[in-house]
Amino acid sequence: MSQDTIPSIFLHAANTYNKKDAFRYKQGRKWIDVSHGDVVEAVDNLSRGLIALGYRTRDRIAILSENRLEWAVADFAILSSGCVDVPLYSTLPAAQVAYILDHSEARALFVSTREQLEKIIEVRDQLPHLHKIYSFEPIDDIDGVESYDSLIEAGKSADTVKSLEERVAEITPDDWASIIYTSGTTGDPKGVILSHRNIAANVTSAVIAFEIGPKDTALSFLPMSHVLERTGGFYAPYYCGSTIAFAESLEAVSDNLLEVRPTMMVSVPRFFEKIYGRVFDTATAGSVIKRNMFFWALNVGKIHTKQAFDRRVSRVTAMKYGVAKKLVFSKLKAKTGGRIRFFVSGGAPLSREIAEFFHAAGLPILEGYGTTETAPVISVNTFDNTKPVSYT
């Protein structure tokens, strides 16, 4: 099976790697592993349920949810049904949610929680195209809302629906996959139509650039409704068998880094700026010896990084950098879980100061540039060809 549609990528990875920990999420204090087999079964049944209810090719189905396992299952199921998904930021106010649902003519909507559902109740009379609402979490006291689990159960008895493999084979690369709405900074949000080919080509190219594989673990915390996380932090690592762990929340990322110990993560400059700020404040608030040690290590790291980029690290620099890593940078790396091989940064320019600091600390940031319309990556630094602030 070729990997030129998202559902074909989904099946390819599941059949190739068949891991016990394709996905991970935290329940209470415990991290739960979810296998490829379990995900395939859920996607198959959810997709069957959608088809049995009459959803057809190019029908729009929206997702209003934070990052979680059900988001991924719903996404794969919608696309495996031949439908088009419309991802919505969970932070959007009711008025913007209503605009996007109406403009996209979404026939169905998946919501994560009661809080998200209340936004829809507020604007329900403005949505003539919306026929069904499905909730990831059980909500029994509101009319017109059905559960995600009930849709999966309905799919189990939909015997007349073709097999998942047959359904996936009928989807073509030029079929619509998603309508992603950009921020409305210059007016109402604009819907960007992306085909399966658009996204799949970006995914397969990203895998080559990032050099990721089944031994990697990605921590997902940027919104999956944003195309950067969806392609770089979800589809790409999934495609090559990496484990994807869903962060509990933005506030819990620091703790989740220590618990999951990821090897890669996609983020935006603001995340790196916050880390840098905390490290800098801690270093400058310490004793004179610790402060001097930090700035000495940072200077050595910058020299090492520059020489490494030029492929001519001197013996003296290498020795000094070894000491700097042991005394200073190892502590920073430990706070990211100790296994990070690289970060990916996008969405906005990353300052030279931040980029050089992370490279010096042995936590390389691969900067990318792109747009929603290009699904999204146009260009990205690689391990073999990295230049900080290369967007300038």
Summarize this, please?
By secondary structure, this protein is an alpha/beta fold. It is 47% helix and 17% strand.
Your description of this structure?
It contains 14 helices and 15 strands. With about 400 residues, the protein is α/β, with parallel strands linked by helices. The mean pLDDT is about 95. The radius of gyration is 22 Å and the shape is elongated. The longest helix is centred in the C-terminal third of the chain and has 22 residues. Helix 2 packs across helix 3 and helix 12 crosses helix 14.
Distance between the termini: 40 Å
Q: By helix and strand content, what is the structural category?
A: alpha/beta
Shape: elongated
Rounded to the nearest angstrom, the radius of gyration is 22 Å
Biggest sheet, open or closed, and with what strands and sense?
A: 5 strands, parallel
How big a fraction of the residues is strand? 15-25%
For the secondary structure, the number of strands is: 15
Low-confidence stretches: none
| Mean pLDDT level | 93
Total count of helical runs of at least 4 residues = 14
List the helices and strands and how they pair.
Elements: H1 6-17, E1 23-27, E2 30-34, H2 36-52, E3 60-64, H3 69-80, E4 84-88, H4 94-104, E5 108-111, H5 114-123, E6 132-135, E7 145-147, H6 148-156, H7 164-170, E8 176-181, E9 191-195, H8 196-210, E10 217-220, H9 227-239, E11 243-246, H10 253-260, E12 264-267, H11 269-285, H12 288-309, H13 315-335, E13 342-345, H14 352-360, E14 365-370, E15 377-380
Parallel strand pairs: 1-11, 3-4, 3-5, 5-6, 6-7, 10-11, 12-13, 13-14
Antiparallel strand pairs: 1-2, 8-9, 14-15
